Amino acid sequence: MVITINKRTIVPTLIIALAFSRTIKSMTTWVYPFLMMFVFLIGFALYLVKYGIDFSDSRTNNAFEVIKYGFTPYLLIFVYSMIINVVNNNPSANYARTAGSSFSAMIVPWIIAAIIFLYEDDAINLVCNGLLLEYVVEILVGISGVGVSALFEHIKDPLNTYESIFEVHDIGFALFLFLIYYLLHDANSHKCKIIMLVFVEYLIMKRIALVGMFISLFAYGLLCLINKSKERISYRVIFYALFIVACAYLFFIANPDFKNLMMNAGIYNRFLLVDAMSQYYKFSLGFWGQGYGFVSLVIPNASIAGVQGIAALHNDILKDYIELGFIGFFLIYYYLFVHMPMKIFGTIKSKNVKILIALMIYLLVTLFTDNVFEYIAFMGAFMVILASLKIEDEEFPV
């Protein structure tokens, strides 16, 4: 196992690491990551100004496809939410939160498109290495505060010792995406990176992400058993099945069985949190939603006995339903789990479609109990991997 360093990516890797620094962000502002990564957009823009936009160039096409698939839905969500704010006569805080949340979501695909355009094949390793480097720095920062012995205690018991110091939500969920990708894509060529990712994920210990990864790997194994002549129809059925599961989950959480499941899983507070939000939505075709960003406004004031300092709903599916309403939710999730992957899989080879499905399954599982759509590291990782799968097929067509 040999670790090679691509000199071309050293500086951009450092930029990614600095952009996602939890330490620096805590001392500055929520827009700090975007300000750091704006350098990629500047490089992208300067190139286009100098040479123009040439859609016959695959590099340009790949960059703008990331923008098309990642930016467009959030632009529509922003417009829809602003209309909802007007119709509901919401206070100014709702408008500001909608604008802020939408900006975060809309700028990520532009940044990833710029990275794809500027670095192509190296883009996926660049983003992964940047996130890994940032977590290594977080380990060092943690050690400086609690000592080396704390790290060893955490290694012995990652769930009950220094979890608040060594657990980094957004990076943890994002790095699982890369781990799944490297395990399924070409594990023999990435042994060192896989070992590093496994160790880092052990320290971060996101249980739902771990469950999601194992389910996705198991699903990939089953996909490999499908007869080649039945692959295309099978893939289509799977995409629709993922969409149906996401929708069915909405109705399941309103069922008493959900309460029992949460209690048995030791996360009863999650049920109390979901139950507290029931006043803001109803399962009806006429429910139009509260507007994007609404949940983050009301969740800190949620009245839940025994639960302090609530920061998030930890349930992206319910959050999206509350904010987008009945029709908005179903349209966006259909786009995410059916329309977009079916458009992509029509252009990539069979193995990469299987990897795509594995990643979609992992995404769905994490949506059940967390807010991964709000993590720019996660969404950036997801987009760069999907774009890389497509780029690879263009360079090495079957």
UniProtKB/TrEMBL annotation:
This is O-antigen polymerase. Coiled coil: none annotated. The chain crosses the membrane at residues 30-49, 69-87, 99-119, 131-152, 164-184, 204-225, 237-254, 321-340, 352-369. It comes from Simiaoa sunii. Keywords: Membrane, Transmembrane, Transmembrane helix.
